Amino acid sequence: MISQLQKARSAYQPKVPAAIEGATKLAEGKATQSVADQEDIKKLFPNTYGMPIVTFEKATGETKAEAFNVGIILSGGQAPGGHNVISGIFDGIKKLNKDSKLYGFLGGPSGLVDHKYIELTSEIVDEYRNTGGFDIIGSGRTKLEEVEQFDKGLEICKKLNIKAIIIIGGDDSNTNACVLAEYYLAKKTGVQVIGCPKTIDGDLKNEMIETSFGFDTATKVYSEVIGNIERDANSAKKYWHFIKLMGRSASHVTLECALQTQPNVTLIGEEVEAKNQSLDDVVTYIAEAVAARAAKGLNFGTVLVPEGLIEFIPAIKKLIAELNDMLAANQAEFDTVAADKKIDYVVSKLSKENAELFKSLPTTVSTQLALERDPHGNVQVSLIETEQLLAEMVAKKLAAWKKEGKFVGKFATQHHFFGYEGRCAAPSNFDADYCYSLGRVAALLIASGKTGYMSSVRNTTKPAAEWLAGGIPITAMMNMEKRNGKMKPVIQKALVKLDGGPFKFFASKRAEWAIETAFVYPGPIQYFGPTEVCDQPTKTLVLEH
């Protein structure tokens, strides 16, 4: 059974750049270089470094190609629009030659290595057009880093006569795509590799990749619910709602939701780090907003908290780093310590400064920091209930202020975490169009013989017909970073720019939003109706361009 909305959405025909609707020709720009560490990146990627940015332009006649087969991989966390990338690739290769075939590797990159796949026929693809989720072939987090994996992948490519692999993923997945492209090119295998920019976090972007797909839909889903909570707060007038938002390290999701809903307090991790703020500074900032509203008789409000906030507080960042190193060095001994003595053991091994900070944290948080580790032995920051931590600490501070006569109101809280709710939503018109276009462009990049490129669609604040289609070499986005103690090439993560248009606009308004009840209620995503309601891009994109 499918819902009435899904039935109606299946008929939606995504809009594409006018340049790729008919025949196309490829225009090459200047040679590129990596964003940093040029010599190191060039040494690691001698075959795919320095390639030019490419753009597709309108041509006369018809663009056709020899039949070719393509394999696709969905990698990492889900993001709305993945199915439309796949339908764009399918339509793109069939438009070039009806005998071309599309294979989907099942369960992410491991499907390539373990030779698990299905052929994606029109019957299968049509069922998933304009739907959310990654369930058409599933996703996974296996990293493609080992030569053995590359060779296993090559075996199945040869068997299925696959000309190119398209990896749909975030910064780590596209880094793996680049490593794979370099290996296959160096070995003269004839197999191309193309990437597509996916992540709701919004941290995979640059001049050529204006936004990662899924960000538009996810932030609209979260903003709808935040707006509903704001309306509830303004109706009940008795709760402060602390809302944590997904986004891993970067605060793009939180900033976009703030721009859409105008909450009373929004924390931006990148600003906290730049200002070298302590946890107490952050708590005091929230408490001051609560006290100022209470003085006006307003004992309610909303606070937006980015998922990665705790990592941006310099003192806690240092504590986490020492905890990781200390537990890695003493794991065997730590495992023998009785459960009720583990916290004391941790405190005994920390430097004085970090031990004091550790002891000052609520028990729930100190327990999560010390005991809940990922497979690499690192703190699982996303599991820390930062929204609850802040609410508890603000309550403590306000109680002290009440005794001093600095706070006259009431303070009751509710806590929320919005993450998984937005990752598989039916894509907005923007994401449906953008993702489909990315897929069509990926097909053209393959037909043009390109490898080690990421599909790029730009000029996205304009109507879709005016969007610019092309590709950017993945090496152009790379720098060297320390991962598990070793320097590795990775796509540079795009954090919130404090001198950028979106943050500057937010900063100019936040003092007013803190005191006033200036809430905006965006409502649910609209798929049908006037273009100014249905096709609007994110506030972030508009303010950046």
Assign a percent range to the helix content: 40-55%
**Strand-residue proportion:** 15-25%
Number of helices: 23
> What is the makeup of the main sheet?
9 strands, mixed
Stretches where pLDDT falls below 50 for ≥5 residues?
none
Rg from C-alpha positions? 25 Å
Structural class: alpha/beta
Distance between the termini: 42 Å
Number of distinct beta strands: 15
Word description of this protein:
The chain is of the alpha/beta class. It has 23 helices and 15 strands. Strand 3, helix 3 and strand 4 form a beta-alpha-beta unit. Helix 15 runs antiparallel to helix 16. The radius of gyration is 25 Å and the shape is globular. The mean pLDDT is 94.
Give a quick set of tags describing it.
nine-stranded mixed sheet, globular, 23 helices, alpha/beta, 545 residues
Brief rundown of the structure:
The protein is of the alpha/beta class and 545 residues long.
What are the SSEs and their pairings?
Blueprint: H1 4-9, E1 24-31, H2 38-44, E2 52-58, E3 69-74, H3 82-96, E4 101-105, H4 109-113, E5 117-119, H5 122-128, H6 147-159, E6 162-169, H7 171-186, E7 192-197, H8 215-236, E8 240-245, H9 252-261, E9 265-266, H10 269-274, H11 279-295, E10 301-306, H12 309-312, H13 314-329, H14 331-336, H15 342-349, H16 352-360, H17 363-371, H18 386-404, E11 413-418, H19 420-423, H20 429-447, E12 453-458, E13 468-473, E14 478-483, E15 486-491, H21 501-515, H22 531-534, H23 539-544
Parallel strand pairs: 3-4, 3-6, 6-7, 7-12, 8-10, 8-11, 9-10
Antiparallel strand pairs: 1-2, 2-13, 4-5, 12-13, 14-15
Helix pairs in contact: 3-5, 3-20, 8-9, 11-18, 13-16, 15-16
